[in-house]
Amino acid sequence: MAKATLYLEDGTELTGESFGSTGEAIGEIVFNTGMTGYQEILTDPSYYGQFVVMTYPLIGNYGVNLKDFESVKPKVFGFIVREYAESPSHFESVMNIDQFLKEHNILGIAGIDTRMLTRKIRTKGTMKALLTTKEMNKEEAMKRLKAPLQRNQVPQVSIPSPITLPGKGYHVVLVDYGYKQGIVRELLERQCKVSIVPHNTSIQEIESLHPDGVLLSNGPGDPKDVPWAIPMIQGLIENNIPLFGICLGHQLFALANGADTKKMKFGHRGSNHPVKDLVTNRIVITSQNHGYTVTKESLEQCPLTITHIAINDGTVEGLAHHTAPAFSVQYHPEASPGPFDSRYLFDQFIEKIHASKEEKKNA
Protein backbone atom coordinates (compact mmCIF):
# COMPACT_ATOMS: atom_id res chain seq x y z
CA MET A 1 0.00 0.00 0.00
CA ALA A 2 1.42 3.37 -1.03
CA LYS A 3 1.46 5.87 1.81
CA ALA A 4 0.28 9.49 1.93
CA THR A 5 0.59 11.97 4.78
CA LEU A 6 -1.66 14.91 5.61
CA TYR A 7 -0.29 17.77 7.73
CA LEU A 8 -2.45 20.57 9.12
CA GLU A 9 -1.12 23.94 10.24
CA ASP A 10 -2.24 23.21 13.82
CA GLY A 11 0.34 20.41 13.97
CA THR A 12 -1.97 17.48 13.18
CA GLU A 13 -0.29 14.67 11.24
CA LEU A 14 -2.35 11.87 9.66
CA THR A 15 -0.99 8.97 7.63
CA GLY A 16 -3.16 6.95 5.27
CA GLU A 17 -3.33 5.20 1.92
CA SER A 18 -2.40 7.15 -1.19
CA PHE A 19 -4.74 7.03 -4.16
CA GLY A 20 -4.93 9.17 -7.23
CA SER A 21 -1.76 11.03 -8.17
CA THR A 22 1.53 11.25 -6.30
CA GLY A 23 3.56 14.27 -5.27
CA GLU A 24 2.78 17.18 -2.98
CA ALA A 25 0.14 19.91 -2.72
CA ILE A 26 -0.77 22.71 -0.31
CA GLY A 27 -4.28 24.12 0.04
CA GLU A 28 -7.11 25.05 2.37
CA ILE A 29 -8.84 22.07 3.99
CA VAL A 30 -12.67 22.06 4.04
CA PHE A 31 -15.37 19.41 4.43
CA ASN A 32 -18.49 18.48 2.48
CA THR A 33 -21.43 16.67 4.10
CA GLY A 34 -22.98 15.27 0.90
CA MET A 35 -23.58 11.52 0.70
CA THR A 36 -23.38 11.54 -3.11
CA GLY A 37 -22.25 13.91 -5.85
CA TYR A 38 -18.49 13.52 -5.46
CA GLN A 39 -17.95 13.92 -9.22
CA GLU A 40 -19.75 17.27 -9.25
CA ILE A 41 -17.83 18.33 -6.13
CA LEU A 42 -14.47 17.44 -7.69
CA THR A 43 -15.26 19.44 -10.83
CA ASP A 44 -16.87 22.48 -9.14
CA PRO A 45 -14.54 25.47 -9.83
CA SER A 46 -15.47 26.95 -6.43
CA TYR A 47 -13.24 24.29 -4.83
CA TYR A 48 -10.14 25.54 -6.63
CA GLY A 49 -7.20 25.59 -4.20
CA GLN A 50 -8.87 23.38 -1.59
CA PHE A 51 -8.60 19.89 -0.12
CA VAL A 52 -12.10 18.44 0.27
CA VAL A 53 -12.86 16.06 3.15
CA MET A 54 -15.93 13.92 2.46
CA THR A 55 -17.81 13.15 5.70
CA TYR A 56 -19.70 10.22 4.14
CA PRO A 57 -17.43 7.18 4.68
CA LEU A 58 -17.62 5.43 1.27
CA ILE A 59 -16.83 7.46 -1.83
CA GLY A 60 -16.63 6.32 -5.44
CA ASN A 61 -19.09 3.42 -5.27
CA TYR A 62 -20.85 4.45 -8.52
CA GLY A 63 -17.65 5.41 -10.33
CA VAL A 64 -17.15 8.35 -12.69
CA ASN A 65 -19.35 8.93 -15.72
CA LEU A 66 -19.15 11.25 -18.72
CA LYS A 67 -22.15 13.49 -17.99
CA ASP A 68 -21.89 14.72 -14.37
CA PHE A 69 -19.03 17.17 -14.88
CA GLU A 70 -19.50 20.74 -13.65
CA SER A 71 -16.39 21.89 -15.53
CA VAL A 72 -14.01 20.36 -18.04
CA LYS A 73 -11.69 18.95 -15.38
CA PRO A 74 -11.39 18.74 -11.57
CA LYS A 75 -10.50 21.90 -9.67
CA VAL A 76 -9.74 20.56 -6.18
CA PHE A 77 -6.13 20.30 -5.01
CA GLY A 78 -6.68 17.18 -2.91
CA PHE A 79 -9.37 14.64 -1.98
CA ILE A 80 -9.70 13.09 1.48
CA VAL A 81 -11.95 10.09 2.18
CA ARG A 82 -12.42 7.32 4.72
CA GLU A 83 -12.68 4.66 2.02
CA TYR A 84 -12.80 4.73 -1.77
CA ALA A 85 -14.37 2.09 -4.00
CA GLU A 86 -11.87 0.38 -6.28
CA SER A 87 -14.61 -1.56 -8.09
CA PRO A 88 -17.59 0.76 -8.67
CA SER A 89 -20.95 -0.52 -9.87
CA HIS A 90 -23.01 1.63 -12.22
CA PHE A 91 -23.98 1.20 -15.87
CA GLU A 92 -22.68 4.68 -16.79
CA SER A 93 -19.32 4.38 -15.01
CA VAL A 94 -16.25 4.63 -17.24
CA MET A 95 -13.54 4.60 -14.54
CA ASN A 96 -13.07 4.50 -10.79
CA ILE A 97 -12.24 7.48 -8.60
CA ASP A 98 -8.58 6.46 -8.30
CA GLN A 99 -8.15 6.42 -12.08
CA PHE A 100 -9.98 9.74 -12.40
CA LEU A 101 -7.69 11.51 -9.90
CA LYS A 102 -4.59 9.99 -11.51
CA GLU A 103 -5.71 11.19 -14.94
CA HIS A 104 -5.98 14.76 -13.65
CA ASN A 105 -2.91 14.77 -11.37
CA ILE A 106 -4.86 15.19 -8.10
CA LEU A 107 -3.70 13.69 -4.81
CA GLY A 108 -5.98 11.60 -2.65
CA ILE A 109 -5.68 10.05 0.81
CA ALA A 110 -7.88 7.32 2.29
CA GLY A 111 -7.96 5.24 5.44
CA ILE A 112 -8.04 8.11 7.92
CA ASP A 113 -10.78 9.14 10.37
CA THR A 114 -12.64 11.75 8.32
CA ARG A 115 -15.28 12.29 11.04
CA MET A 116 -12.55 13.21 13.53
CA LEU A 117 -10.94 15.46 10.94
CA THR A 118 -14.29 17.18 10.28
CA ARG A 119 -14.83 17.80 14.00
CA LYS A 120 -11.37 19.36 14.16
CA ILE A 121 -12.19 21.71 11.27
CA ARG A 122 -15.51 22.63 12.90
CA THR A 123 -13.70 23.41 16.16
CA LYS A 124 -10.64 25.24 14.84
CA GLY A 125 -11.97 26.44 11.50
CA THR A 126 -10.62 25.91 8.01
CA MET A 127 -6.84 25.90 7.88
CA LYS A 128 -3.90 25.33 5.60
CA ALA A 129 -2.95 21.74 4.88
CA LEU A 130 -0.19 19.87 3.08
CA LEU A 131 -0.77 16.50 1.41
CA THR A 132 2.23 14.51 0.23
CA THR A 133 3.34 11.07 -0.89
CA LYS A 134 7.00 12.04 -0.43
CA GLU A 135 9.16 11.40 2.59
CA MET A 136 8.90 14.49 4.76
CA ASN A 137 9.32 15.16 8.46
CA LYS A 138 6.85 17.22 10.44
CA GLU A 139 9.27 20.10 10.96
CA GLU A 140 9.69 20.54 7.20
CA ALA A 141 5.91 20.32 6.67
CA MET A 142 5.20 23.00 9.29
CA LYS A 143 7.79 25.24 7.70
CA ARG A 144 6.11 24.92 4.29
CA LEU A 145 2.68 25.60 5.78
CA LYS A 146 3.81 29.04 6.97
CA ALA A 147 3.70 30.30 3.38
CA PRO A 148 0.47 32.15 2.44
CA LEU A 149 -2.08 30.40 0.27
CA GLN A 150 -2.67 31.47 -3.30
CA ARG A 151 -5.02 34.45 -3.71
CA ASN A 152 -6.61 35.84 -6.85
CA GLN A 153 -8.16 32.47 -7.73
CA VAL A 154 -10.96 33.58 -10.06
CA PRO A 155 -8.63 34.25 -13.05
CA GLN A 156 -7.39 30.66 -12.72
CA VAL A 157 -10.84 29.18 -13.42
CA SER A 158 -12.52 31.75 -15.69
CA ILE A 159 -12.69 31.32 -19.46
CA PRO A 160 -10.17 33.42 -21.46
CA SER A 161 -12.60 34.61 -24.14
CA PRO A 162 -16.39 34.79 -24.65
CA ILE A 163 -18.48 31.94 -26.01
CA THR A 164 -22.17 31.93 -27.02
CA LEU A 165 -24.68 29.09 -26.82
CA PRO A 166 -27.71 29.55 -29.10
CA GLY A 167 -31.29 29.79 -27.84
CA LYS A 168 -34.65 31.12 -28.99
CA GLY A 169 -35.51 32.94 -25.77
CA TYR A 170 -34.02 35.80 -23.80
CA HIS A 171 -30.33 36.62 -24.14
CA VAL A 172 -28.52 36.11 -20.82
CA VAL A 173 -24.89 37.07 -20.26
CA LEU A 174 -23.25 34.74 -17.73
CA VAL A 175 -20.20 36.36 -16.11
CA ASP A 176 -17.77 33.55 -15.41
CA TYR A 177 -16.12 33.68 -11.99
CA GLY A 178 -15.95 29.87 -12.04
CA TYR A 179 -19.38 28.87 -13.34
CA LYS A 180 -20.90 25.41 -13.04
CA GLN A 181 -22.44 23.62 -16.01
CA GLY A 182 -25.63 23.25 -13.97
CA ILE A 183 -26.24 27.00 -14.26
CA VAL A 184 -25.92 26.88 -18.04
CA ARG A 185 -28.17 23.83 -18.16
CA GLU A 186 -30.94 25.64 -16.26
CA LEU A 187 -30.75 28.65 -18.60
CA LEU A 188 -30.78 26.50 -21.73
CA GLU A 189 -33.80 24.57 -20.43
CA ARG A 190 -35.59 27.93 -20.39
CA GLN A 191 -34.65 28.48 -24.06
CA CYS A 192 -32.17 31.26 -23.26
CA LYS A 193 -29.38 32.31 -25.54
CA VAL A 194 -26.36 32.28 -23.22
CA SER A 195 -23.20 34.35 -23.73
CA ILE A 196 -20.48 33.32 -21.26
CA VAL A 197 -17.91 36.08 -20.71
CA PRO A 198 -14.64 36.27 -18.72
CA HIS A 199 -14.50 37.52 -15.14
CA ASN A 200 -12.98 40.88 -16.08
CA THR A 201 -15.54 41.87 -18.73
CA SER A 202 -16.44 45.56 -18.40
CA ILE A 203 -19.92 47.08 -18.26
CA GLN A 204 -19.32 48.58 -21.72
CA GLU A 205 -18.47 45.17 -23.18
CA ILE A 206 -21.53 43.59 -21.58
CA GLU A 207 -23.82 46.36 -22.85
CA SER A 208 -22.42 45.89 -26.37
CA LEU A 209 -23.87 42.35 -26.28
CA HIS A 210 -27.36 43.81 -25.67
CA PRO A 211 -28.33 41.31 -22.97
CA ASP A 212 -31.83 40.91 -21.62
CA GLY A 213 -30.34 39.89 -18.28
CA VAL A 214 -27.00 39.17 -16.58
CA LEU A 215 -26.14 36.28 -14.26
CA LEU A 216 -23.13 36.50 -11.92
CA SER A 217 -21.74 33.00 -11.38
CA ASN A 218 -20.27 31.15 -8.45
CA GLY A 219 -16.50 30.92 -8.02
CA PRO A 220 -13.62 30.36 -5.61
CA GLY A 221 -11.96 32.48 -2.97
CA ASP A 222 -12.54 35.80 -1.25
CA PRO A 223 -14.97 38.15 -3.06
CA LYS A 224 -12.73 41.08 -2.10
CA ASP A 225 -10.07 39.58 -4.37
CA VAL A 226 -12.30 40.47 -7.35
CA PRO A 227 -12.53 44.29 -7.04
CA TRP A 228 -12.76 44.81 -10.81
CA ALA A 229 -16.24 43.24 -10.74
CA ILE A 230 -17.69 46.00 -8.55
CA PRO A 231 -17.94 48.87 -11.10
CA MET A 232 -19.36 46.48 -13.69
CA ILE A 233 -22.12 45.32 -11.30
CA GLN A 234 -22.84 48.91 -10.28
CA GLY A 235 -23.23 49.78 -13.95
CA LEU A 236 -25.75 46.98 -14.44
CA ILE A 237 -27.79 48.24 -11.47
CA GLU A 238 -27.66 51.87 -12.64
CA ASN A 239 -28.88 50.83 -16.08
CA ASN A 240 -31.67 48.64 -14.65
CA ILE A 241 -30.44 45.50 -16.41
CA PRO A 242 -32.03 42.44 -14.72
CA LEU A 243 -29.40 40.77 -12.55
CA PHE A 244 -29.15 37.43 -10.74
CA GLY A 245 -26.16 36.52 -8.53
CA ILE A 246 -25.27 33.03 -7.30
CA CYS A 247 -22.80 32.26 -4.47
CA LEU A 248 -19.69 34.38 -5.24
CA GLY A 249 -21.93 36.41 -7.54
CA HIS A 250 -24.20 37.05 -4.53
CA GLN A 251 -21.27 38.29 -2.46
CA LEU A 252 -20.05 40.56 -5.26
CA PHE A 253 -23.59 41.92 -5.68
CA ALA A 254 -23.61 42.80 -1.97
CA LEU A 255 -20.18 44.47 -2.13
CA ALA A 256 -21.25 46.51 -5.16
CA ASN A 257 -24.15 47.88 -3.10
CA GLY A 258 -22.00 48.94 -0.14
CA ALA A 259 -22.33 45.83 2.05
CA ASP A 260 -19.46 43.86 3.58
CA THR A 261 -18.38 40.21 3.60
CA LYS A 262 -16.36 38.14 6.06
CA LYS A 263 -14.73 34.72 6.15
CA MET A 264 -16.74 32.06 7.97
CA LYS A 265 -15.21 29.70 10.50
CA PHE A 266 -15.74 26.59 8.37
CA GLY A 267 -18.34 27.61 5.77
CA HIS A 268 -21.31 25.74 4.32
CA ARG A 269 -20.56 22.81 2.00
CA GLY A 270 -23.08 20.08 1.34
CA SER A 271 -26.42 19.26 -0.27
CA ASN A 272 -28.76 19.38 2.72
CA HIS A 273 -28.67 22.94 4.10
CA PRO A 274 -32.09 24.34 5.12
CA VAL A 275 -32.85 27.92 4.06
CA LYS A 276 -35.88 30.03 4.90
CA ASP A 277 -37.47 32.16 2.19
CA LEU A 278 -38.60 35.27 4.10
CA VAL A 279 -40.99 36.26 1.31
CA THR A 280 -43.01 33.02 1.29
CA ASN A 281 -42.07 31.82 4.80
CA ARG A 282 -41.20 28.42 3.29
CA ILE A 283 -38.16 26.24 4.05
CA VAL A 284 -36.15 24.79 1.17
CA ILE A 285 -33.26 22.32 1.29
CA THR A 286 -30.30 23.66 -0.64
CA SER A 287 -26.91 22.78 -2.08
CA GLN A 288 -24.16 25.04 -0.73
CA ASN A 289 -20.45 25.64 -1.17
CA HIS A 290 -19.06 28.85 0.29
CA GLY A 291 -16.57 30.01 2.90
CA TYR A 292 -17.57 33.71 3.01
CA THR A 293 -20.82 35.42 3.97
CA VAL A 294 -22.45 38.84 3.69
CA THR A 295 -22.63 40.45 7.13
CA LYS A 296 -26.11 41.44 8.32
CA GLU A 297 -24.99 44.62 10.06
CA SER A 298 -23.41 45.98 6.87
CA LEU A 299 -26.76 45.80 5.05
CA GLU A 300 -28.49 48.39 7.26
CA GLN A 301 -27.48 51.35 5.11
CA CYS A 302 -27.63 49.51 1.76
CA PRO A 303 -30.42 49.48 -0.85
CA LEU A 304 -30.84 45.75 -0.26
CA THR A 305 -33.40 43.58 1.54
CA ILE A 306 -32.60 40.18 3.05
CA THR A 307 -34.84 37.61 1.34
CA HIS A 308 -33.39 34.33 2.63
CA ILE A 309 -31.58 33.20 5.78
CA ALA A 310 -29.81 29.98 6.78
CA ILE A 311 -31.76 28.01 9.37
CA ASN A 312 -28.64 26.50 10.96
CA ASP A 313 -26.75 29.71 11.77
CA GLY A 314 -28.90 32.66 10.66
CA THR A 315 -26.47 33.90 8.02
CA VAL A 316 -27.64 35.84 4.95
CA GLU A 317 -28.66 33.55 2.08
CA GLY A 318 -30.50 35.90 -0.27
CA LEU A 319 -30.79 39.59 -1.18
CA ALA A 320 -32.99 41.78 -3.38
CA HIS A 321 -32.40 45.36 -4.52
CA HIS A 322 -34.95 47.94 -3.37
CA THR A 323 -35.53 49.47 -6.81
CA ALA A 324 -33.50 47.65 -9.49
CA PRO A 325 -34.57 44.27 -10.97
CA ALA A 326 -31.66 42.57 -9.20
CA PHE A 327 -31.43 39.77 -6.65
CA SER A 328 -29.04 37.08 -5.45
CA VAL A 329 -28.72 33.91 -3.38
CA GLN A 330 -25.77 32.48 -1.49
CA TYR A 331 -26.66 28.86 -2.28
CA HIS A 332 -26.86 26.90 -5.55
CA PRO A 333 -30.35 26.76 -7.13
CA GLU A 334 -28.93 24.62 -9.95
CA ALA A 335 -27.94 22.02 -7.29
CA SER A 336 -25.47 19.62 -8.99
CA PRO A 337 -25.31 17.83 -6.65
CA GLY A 338 -28.30 18.41 -4.43
CA PRO A 339 -32.06 18.94 -4.30
CA PHE A 340 -33.97 20.94 -6.90
CA ASP A 341 -36.09 22.87 -4.37
CA SER A 342 -34.70 26.21 -5.58
CA ARG A 343 -34.94 25.84 -9.34
CA TYR A 344 -37.83 28.33 -9.21
CA LEU A 345 -35.26 31.13 -8.80
CA PHE A 346 -34.29 30.76 -12.46
CA ASP A 347 -37.96 31.22 -13.34
CA GLN A 348 -38.02 34.36 -11.17
CA PHE A 349 -35.02 35.66 -13.09
CA ILE A 350 -36.82 35.08 -16.41
CA GLU A 351 -39.91 36.80 -14.97
CA LYS A 352 -37.81 39.83 -13.99
CA ILE A 353 -36.42 39.99 -17.53
CA HIS A 354 -39.93 39.79 -18.97
CA ALA A 355 -41.26 42.49 -16.61
CA SER A 356 -38.31 44.75 -17.40
CA LYS A 357 -38.88 44.45 -21.16
CA GLU A 358 -42.61 45.13 -20.74
CA GLU A 359 -41.84 48.20 -18.62
CA LYS A 360 -39.45 49.58 -21.24
CA LYS A 361 -41.98 48.87 -24.00
CA ASN A 362 -44.68 50.81 -22.17
CA ALA A 363 -42.46 53.69 -21.07
Automatic annotation (TrEMBL):
Its EC number is 6.3.5.5. This is Carbamoyl phosphate synthase small chain. Residues 2-132 form the Carbamoyl-phosphate synthase small subunit N-terminal domain. Belongs to the CarA family. Composed of two chains; the small (or glutamine) chain promotes the hydrolysis of glutamine to ammonia, which is used by the large (or ammonia) chain to synthesize carbamoyl phosphate. Tetramer of heterodimers (alpha,beta)4. Pfam families: CPSase_sm_chain (PF00988), GATase (PF00117). InterPro entries: Anth_synth/Amidotransfase (IPR050472), CarbamoylP_synth_ssu (IPR006274), CarbamoylP_synth_ssu_N (IPR002474), CarbP_synth_ssu_N_sf (IPR036480), Class_I_gatase-like (IPR029062), CPSase_GATase1 (IPR035686), GATASE (IPR017926). HAMAP family: CPSase_S_chain (MF_01209).
